[in-house]
Specification:
The protein is an alpha+beta fold. The protein contains four helices and seven strands.
């Protein structure tokens, strides 16, 4: 079940620091028509948290986030390409890889991303 509209941010008193490796990944976008379409698609996916803020939208996940341009295009009502997607996502954490012309994946696990990166 999606955790849409949940808030990933915690107050300092609730933060616990650990010496572990996180496999989280995510994107932050300025609030726009394109960003809302991306969020609408992603909030329906399992393990994805979408946080709406006054001027930004944040999408976070564990392991990897798979962004399908065809799904986003349908929600947007016009074509979304990986290049427009890259402009719409102002920042990200994790390793972002364009797998093909329809798929951009943000990996939280660097080892999994290495399979797509030419050496």
């Amino acid at each position: 079940m999606s955790e849409a509209h949940a808030n990933i941010f915690k107050s300092m008193k609730d933060i616990r620091f650990e010496d572990t490796i996180s496999h989280q990944c995510g994107v932050t976008m300025n609030d726009s028509v394109e960003a809302r379409a991306i969020a609408e698609v992603m909030e329906k996916k399992k393990g994805v948290t979408v946080t709406y803020m006054p001027a930004m939208i944040r999408i976070d996940g564990e392991g990897k986030l798979v962004f399908k341009m065809s799904e986003i295009s349908e929600a947007l009502g016009r074509e979304m390409t990986p290049y427009i997607f890259e402009i719409s996502t102002s920042t990200h954490y994790g390793r972002m890889v364009m797998v093909d012309d329809d798929t951009v994946v943000c990996f939280g696990d660097m080892n999994e991303a290495l399979a797509y990166i030419e050496h």
